[in-house]
Amino acid sequence: MSDHSERDLLRELFPETARELFGDGRAPQDTVGLYPVADGRLALVSGAQLAEFTPLDPKGNKALHCDLCHYTRSRSEAAVYRVVVGARRSRYLTLCLNTEACQQRAGKSGVQTLAERIFPIESPYVE
């Protein structure tokens, strides 16, 4: 019985083929991002975690400060969102309506910081 697997032999003898078949061996990067979904809602994804942001009806006409990119926006360019983070607990955030441009301004570290404020989400049910 051999001490070497097929994968080990391919990596040793044919490294390019092994990279094509099995990848380069690096750990996969966590996915972090804010994505628009139906009805104006947004989904924040961080690895295997998911949070849904629900827009609130606009009230007033004052400018809003985006919690992600930290730009001040008019009511037509930003909205207030609610995300449920636990049983009877919600967080309220102001975000730009153009999420793609907002994420570019904030950068990956800005989106990661937002995810750290939201996650981990507790069970929404009271035990």
Based on the model shown, name its key terms.
single chain, 127 residues, alpha+beta, 2 domains, 5-stranded antiparallel beta sheet, two-stranded antiparallel ribbon, 7 strands, elongated
Q: What does this protein structure show overall?
A:
The chain is an alpha+beta fold and 127 residues long. The protein folds into two domains: 1-29, no CATH class; 31-118, no CATH class. Helix content is 28%, strand content 30%. It has helices at residues 6-13, 15-22, 99-118, and strands at 32-36, 42-46, 49-55, 64-65, 72-73, 78-86, 89-96. The strands form two sheets. The chain has a five-stranded antiparallel β-sheet with strand order 1-2-3-6-7. It has a two-stranded antiparallel sheet with strand order 4-5. Helix 1 (6-13) packs across helix 2. The longest helix has 20 residues, at 99-118. The radius of gyration is 21 Å and the shape is elongated.
Short synopsis of the structure:
This protein has 127 residues and is α+β, with helices and mostly antiparallel strands. It is built from three helices and seven strands.
Mean of residue pLDDT values:
87
Number of helical runs?
3
What does the radius of gyration come to?
Answer: 21 Å
Largest sheet, spatial ordering of strands: 1-2-3-6-7
Number of domains: 2
Number of strands: 7
What shape does the CA trace take?
elongated
**By helix and strand content, what is the structural category?**
alpha+beta
How is the main sheet built? 5 strands, antiparallel
Uncertain residue segments:
none
Strand proportion, as a percent range, falls in 25-35%
Encode the helix/strand succession as letters.
HHEEEEEEEH
The percent of residues in helical segments reads 25-40%
Amino-to-carboxy terminus distance: 54 Å
